[in-house]
Amino acid sequence: MHEGELELADDAAARLIIGRFPEFALLPLRPVHASGTVNRIIRIGDELSARFPLLPATETALAAEAEAMSEFAQTCTVAAPQPVGIGEATSEYPSAWAVQTWVPGETASHDHHEASDSLAVDVAGLIVSLRTADARGRVFDGQGRGGVLTDHDEWIGLCVARSGHLLDAPRVQRLWRALRSVPPSGPDVMSHRDLTPFNLLVSGDRLVGVLDSGGFGPADPALDLVVAWHLFDGPRRRIIRDHLDSGDVDWLRGAAWALQQAMGLVWYYEDSNPDMSALGLSTMHRLLADADLASLL
User: Fold this and answer.
1) pTM of the prediction?
2) pLDDT digits over 30-58, tens only?
3) What is the pLDDT of residues 213-247, one digit of tens each?
4) 202 closest CA partner among 139, 117, 108, 71
5) I need a surface site. Which of 79, 184, 192, 241 has the fewest CB within 10 A?
6) Domains, in order of start, for the chain
């Protein structure tokens, strides 16, 4: 999926895991085939998993992620993975990697849960809990989404240019221009920063787990609202908005962040990860079909 992506055979992963964690030597190892774009995942027994980055990562970076994961788990309204340990880079695999606890559940789907009232309420409750966590004086670190919308103008321009065969590119560009200058709705709050359906675990129509919390940190209060557009139809988005008491500014900035993320998924993963591309397209269709956003064009 990425230029410079690391390769790792199953037997090499087993050697790395057992070499670093000999206490796991008798546990079965099973590759997990998922739609993720950051890590290759190996299940260790029933309660653990190893995550091998697809692109090289340092022990320092994974230690910071582990700290964020622990903080997130203390705040999250449902189960979340906890860090177990970190493996160092070797000649066989030139990246640090990590082991964490396994959280059971099914991955949410952008087209299976769009009309679920109960899941919308659960997701809204999750966002409320994260927003009220103590930021301890921290502010956005400048990495990725969650800061200044206009910093992403060049990226959106590239995405629009690459997606004309999949979407109404001029309409997408007009919507971005309408949303990019919406001011912040308030100071940074604690945010998951990547609330896509692939990071939400469900049982039926209830939220039971949240994955990939290593980016938990302060960001734009509207950033986690991307999940409303990724996962739900209009009436369920209304449930989330009402539950959070989101004003116009907060809601429009959430739509802007959803557009920024979705447009990257649409074309970048068109061939290498069709599930991720399909999520991006679904989100963009919701944004472009929304009557309130259409009035901005």
Assistant:
1) 0.94
2) 999 876 778 899 999 999 999 999 999 99
3) 999 999 999 999 999 999 999 999 999 999 999 99
4) 108
5) 184
6) 10-101 (3.30.200.20), 106-294 (3.90.1200.10)
